Amino acid sequence: MISDPGKFSITTADLGPEKGIWHRVTAHGFPSKSKAAEFKQALAGLKHDSMIVNSGIGSRYEIHMASYRTAETAASGLNKIKNSHGDILAGKELAIKRVDLGREKGVWFRIIAGGFAKWDEAMELSKRLSLRKQYGKVLIN
Predict the structure, then answer these.
(1) pLDDT, position 1
(2) What's the pLDDT score for residue 3?
(3) Residue 81's Cα: distance from chain center in Å?
(4) Which end of the chain has fewer CB atoms at under 10 Å, N or C?
(5) Phi, psi (deg, nearest 5) at residue 62
(6) Cβ contacts of residue 82 below 8 Å, gap of 6+?
(7) Can you give the pTM of this predicted structure?
(8) Which contacts (CB < 8 Å, 24+ apart) does range 76-84 have?
């Protein structure tokens, strides 16, 4: 049994016309690769599609580009952002992150660009998005 499974997030990945859009539940925030492997082993009996990946390792900052009330509208918004700004977002991890902002504000689905190890790198892209009239607030991951 895992006492601290880390954090969970939901991301949407467009795998192309053949496979379509998939929603992934990702566990992250483990203190070590061995703890992540231990968690993977605990899940092994459930389904055989878990894999340890290096996504997010070394990335401390992310850019919040939009928020939506539902995952479906966020997926549509993500496609619009990819179409409009894919050239400057190339190589960045784009995801939809579910966030609960409490009783008053509720649950939102944020479009996030991640994979930034340095504040300056995230701020540079945020400025480029701003010049294109696209919201882009840098957040600490």
Answers:
(1) 40
(2) 46
(3) 14
(4) N
(5) -140, 160
(6) 14, 89, 94
(7) 0.60
(8) 77/111, 78/12, 78/111, 79/14, 81/111, 81/134, 82/14, 84/132, 84/134
CA distance 40 to 27: 9
Across 1-141, the runs of DSSP E, i.e. the strands, are: 7-14, 21-28, 61-68, 93-100, 107-116, 137-140
CATH assignment of 61-140, given 1.10.10.10, 3.30.70.1070, 4.10.640.10, 3.30.1540.10? 3.30.70.1070
DSSP conformation class of 134 = -
pLDDT tens string 52-106: 444 444 467 889 999 999 888 998 999 999 999 999 998 888 888 888 888 899 8
d(CA 5, CA 27): 7
